[in-house]
Design goal:
The complex is a heterodimer of chains A (513) and B (176). Chain A is built from 16 helices and 9 strands. With 513 residues, chain A is of the alpha/beta class. Chain A has 2 domains: 2-65 and 76-328, Tubulin/FtsZ, GTPase domain (Rossmann fold); 344-504, no CATH class. In chain A, the strands form 2 sheets. In chain A, strands 1, 2, 3, 4, 5, 6 and 8 form a 7-stranded parallel beta sheet that branches. A two-stranded parallel ribbon of chain A has the order 7-9. In chain A, helix 2 runs antiparallel to helix 13 (391-415) and helix 15 (472-486) packs across helix 16. The longest helix of chain A has 25 residues, at 391-415. In chain B, helix 1 packs antiparallel against helix 3 and helix 3 (47-84) runs antiparallel to helix 5. The interface between A and B is medium-sized, with 19 and 17 residues.
Amino acid sequence: MTNILIGIGGTGAKVVEATLGLFSAGLGPRDVTIGLIDQDRANGNVNRTQTRLKNLRRFQRLWGGKSASTIDWSTGKGKVDFGSIAISELFDDNALWCPEGDDLSLANIIGRDLSQQQSDLFDLLFMPGEEEQDLELGEGYRGRAHVGAAALIAAMLEENALTKKLRDLMGTADRESVRIFLVGSAFGGTGAAGFPTLARELHRIRTDSEFSNRNGVSIGGALMLPYFGFARPDKEGQPVVTTDELLPKARLALEYYGRLFETEQTFDRFYVLGWDPFFNLGYHQPGNYEQRNPPLLTELFAATAAVEFLTHDEEQDGRTEVPVMLSARAGRGIRWSDFPLPGAEEKLAQLIRFSAYWLYLSEHLLSSTSLLGGGNWTQRLRGRMKPIDHQPELEALRNVCRDVLNWAAATQKMSGDRWVPGPWDTTGFHDRGHEETPIEPVALLGDRFPDAELAFDRLVRADNGENQLRGSAAVYEALVNDAESLSRGNQQGYGKVVAAAYRATALHGEGQG
Amino acid sequence: MGAIMWRVAKSFFVHLFFMLPVLLLVYLVVQGQDSLSDSVRATLKTARSLSTRLADARGELMTWCFAGFLISWLASSLFLASAERASPANEREARSRLGLWSFLLITVIALLAVNYWFSLLGARVNVSLASNTFILAVLIGGFGILLSYYLATGLVVRRVMRPSVPLAAGLPTFWS
């Protein structure tokens, strides 16, 4: 089985970021190839997702079997869910594909060497000047989906790395099943343009009479309707999409998809997500690094759609028509039971708890000793290993844990009063000296601090709003009493310590893996 | 509460395990009439009166030992109950009962000393017995009592609270 997840545009990248969180928790298929598409190479959303992706890949590489510290990611009883889903990037060591060069405009791409008739048509379809025809595409399509679609189609008509790679993956030699999940927004630029364009291209490939794996490719898609708004741009007349334009754009997009689905079944499964009222980002950046929107809860829900598509039982479906399902929240607050993915509470909560427990309550024990090891449970598992000799592995683990906690903290912060009671509460780990900015609404404390145990106890909440009863004291006692059995499996070196901590931080005692 | 009672019972068994051999040893040490001091043997001429004095001294010593074990068991039970109620989330918190453990140890030693003063010296057991015999019997009793306290607390306390008992991390864990 080949599984491919492609995020298109900044919103698509953010959904991929949330999905990486679920993958890190062991929710998903055995392996996934990740791709990102954005015209804006420097886009902050894409960059953050790429960083998280690379951190996870590095962690898997360093702990995957050749060093002195390994974690058991086999399918046996000793398997640890954390990090067990093998992640790869679409291109050798890179997930991002940019359709066009930075300084190109639509006029450069398709507006040259036109006949008078073609030129008139070009002027009719696209506004002259910087508004559309000469809009520099280096920072994305700025909400001009039709501009992006034209540029993308032009790029795809030529032989390009993306379709070549996807065609290779889809037409596997042994004709195994291939699942491709696309996610993008209906209201932006790159996503709105790229989502249907790429989906149709993939559908065209899989239905081509000469394609070797015709019945083996499933395509799923998540279309993100408007779910956040931003401040008005500083300069009037900037070629960007504004909050007022979002809903009309989304309506046009849905009408387009409605017509599309009448003529071709591009998607085998199609998910549509939105949020009302909108999350307010409180700033506006047309693109580039500064377009680094904090993670939002809607993206996590979209991530559950990705996991659901990549893991659903195809035989059970029988490839018959998938019924239309509608789901919405009744109240304002968010609870674990709102997540439409089995195991989300148990595994995602465990991942968040482990990340905090490792960063603030465990890692320092690796370099300290206690008399005969009575209170330092890591001593019995790690033997004579010294952290100084294993810095790369420990740093990679630290980065993954930080990514998880940063994402959880920002998601909570941006949810505002929707977070009642909220499935988790990271406030105990927030750096109160941090000056809040729209792109970095929250920062975590850098090191251990005196009340870390209390913060951990309050980190994950049950649906009744109470702290989970299994707090830091129960976790510590489990580690002191049963570290050896908690580290069972084919773990080596510090891998034993990680496995024990991960299992001990399960919500209800010993977790699954 | 059930867990505390169970640990108190375990502590009782540890004390019983050491008390029986200690009492037997004391009994054996203070057995022959040569255990009596020269002055007592010179004063008491009849074998019967010598036996009576020996039995009295032995009885005082064994009572002192028994009381010491009882005090140690009570002290260890207090410690175990307190440790049972703790919820340490790190090593520092796991050491939080070290002060109580030390205080109870000192209390046991102090009560042993007070009891030694009143029961043994008050009854002039040190005069009745030969000094070597007396010292040996007191050392056996005292050592057995303190060892019982240490092992009852170290072996029986919750494993997570072992840092509160010095060097207990190296003890076997079958009873914790």
